[in-house]
Amino acid sequence: MELETKIYQKENNLSPGNLLKQSLGDIYRSRFLARQLAERDIKAQYRQSYLGIIWAFITPLATAAVWVFLNMSGTIQVTDTGIPYPVYAFTGTLLWSIMREAINSPATSTSSARGILSKINFPKEALIISGIYKLLFNSSIKILLLVALVFLFGIGFHWSLLLLPFVILGALLFGTTIGLFLTPISMLYKDVGKVVGMGFSFLMYITPVVYPVPGEGIMRTVMEINPFTPIILTSRDLITGASPDYLAYYFVVLAATVPLFLLALMAYRISIPIIVERSN
Amino acid sequence: MSQELKNHKQQTPNNEVLVKVENLSKKFCKDLKTSLWYGVQDLVSNLKGNKTERELRDQEFWAVKEISFELRRGECLGLIGHNGAGKSTLLKILNGLINPDAGKVTIRGRVGALIELGAGFNGILTGRENIYNNGAILGFSRKEINEKLDEIIDFAEIQEFIDMPVQNYSSGMKVRLGFAIAAQMEPDVLLIDEVLAVGDLGFVLKCFKTIDKILPNTAIIFVSHSMPMISRICNQIILMEKGLTKFQGDDVAKAIDLYYQSFVNNESNVVFDDGSLSLEDIKLLDPQSGEATNQLNWGEDLSLYFSFKLNRTFQESPIFKIIIFDKEQRPVAILKENDKNETIAIKNNIIQFVVSHKNIQLSKGVYTLNLLVAEGRIQAPLLRTNGILTFQIIHEDEIWPPFLLESSFT
Predict the structure, then answer these.
(1) Taking a contact as any Cβ pair under 8 Å apart, which residues of chain B between 156 and 215 contact chain A?
(2) Domains and CATH numbers, chain B
(3) pLDDT digit string, tens, across residues B120-138
(4) Which of A78, A79, B257, B362 has minimal CB crowding within 10 Å?
(5) Longest dimension (CA), chain A
(6) Terminal CA-CA length for chain A
């Protein structure tokens, strides 16, 4: 039997093509590990909690409730959203929480594996994939909740709802890609995570999460450039059955995400030894 | 090309080189903030391909410097050295966890590491569930684990508790379970770092049995501070000191001697002293010349000269106990104490005598003496000093037991 040969040296002699091939190969080889890690974390999370899954969506629901209250009490006048405002706010905050979780996912997974990263050599890509599995699990529960809310407010069923999982999948990939680019540096400096957390709370206000894109002005320009806008809006339009205005931009974002994701994977693979060396 | 082909043909499965390390070096940084900043720079240079020569930057030092060796299937390399000598760093590089700063490692075959047992265990989950977690990290597939599950549980001897959360396991049980899973690996190269130190005797024996079983088909690199373990399984050795190779070769005994010598501390330390007397002089006397020496041939007579200064008057001579310790700080013998009724002469508050032992049969090695002086029927201690003298017994045979006894076969 031919033995696999590994070479460790300072120089990184791999061409990007080979690097990518190895990375994708490791993802395939570690599919069981990725699933096992996700299963472990999900099980452990719920076994030690009575409210369990409720914690996953209580924050976005609370945020939405605040906005619904502000709007209904007349404190803040939100321009017409075309659908009942509570539906608009709840879909917005839940989708936003999915995005936020997706961005944090690679760093969280890597960080929680710090202990074994410095002891055992295993395909690190499994951490990213297990993060995606966990995202899929949490997101599907949030989406079920969303759909229930939609029916509750009498929006009714639309065939477009069946496309929602694909759009969410794209959204998760987009979020994970951003997170993956930030992971190497955020493993070294805690500051990065703080900045991302803070930046994200501001980002929400230039994304149509709790209010729609205004008709004109600087805010409209900013929101239309913001790549999160087409993701949130397309998802929401599919849920409520409206015609997705930003579908073209969504596809542009998605088309950019795929190569960027592969690039981020390569950067991650190269950075891991340095993270293990410097921050363990 | 034909040469290569020929070489390949000559290789039997048992002597192929599995691990080849060439001039391996690794540097670390002493300051965290600087280290993190260098990390950012390295991230960038890694992405660019990282071809430039690496020099020591400010605050950096070589943790591993120019280590080279080759290891074949069936061989076991012991890595010994003080704490911080670079052993674990070297192991991490071999395991591919961190990249070297210079040099090259070539490893053929499946690499297994016994560096941390039970990696990936989650305390809340049961032992059974964690077998899958840890197994997955070690690279097993679900099918493989399913097949080996019973064997793992039997090996760990925790059938009764296998469905209990792992957080309620004792540390020994966790290690047992971790080892039971790891023992299922069939590696070509196995890296072991000090994991066998934990666990009870039964467990350690079991570990060795497993290692003995896989050794013929594996190249093992073994890091340990336990010299008996090293001498038991290693046939090659590297003694590291401050990142450098201090000794390398197949003379395991010599390396172990050097390792122990690096600990020899010629200063004696007083453990207890009530002030009534003090040790003025101690000498090992050469059997031929009677001069002070620190070496004896095996089978010669041991003669120790002592001189004490007394700080008060004594009714009778105190009792002198001289204990011999080996290099592992195990007590191996005690010289029979002086008889109370035989008074040793005291002159001008000085008490001096020679203690002798005929035909010393301690095995080759370095020994130290501890001294205990006591008084009276209840043997109240007066003075206790460790390491008053270090001497060496010379003999051609290297043996592990502390005594090499004269014998005749009839």
Answers:
(1) 188
(2) 18-75+88-107 (no CATH), 111-261 (3.40.50.300), 269-394 (2.70.50.60)
(3) 888 888 999 999 999 999 8
(4) A79
(5) 75
(6) 37
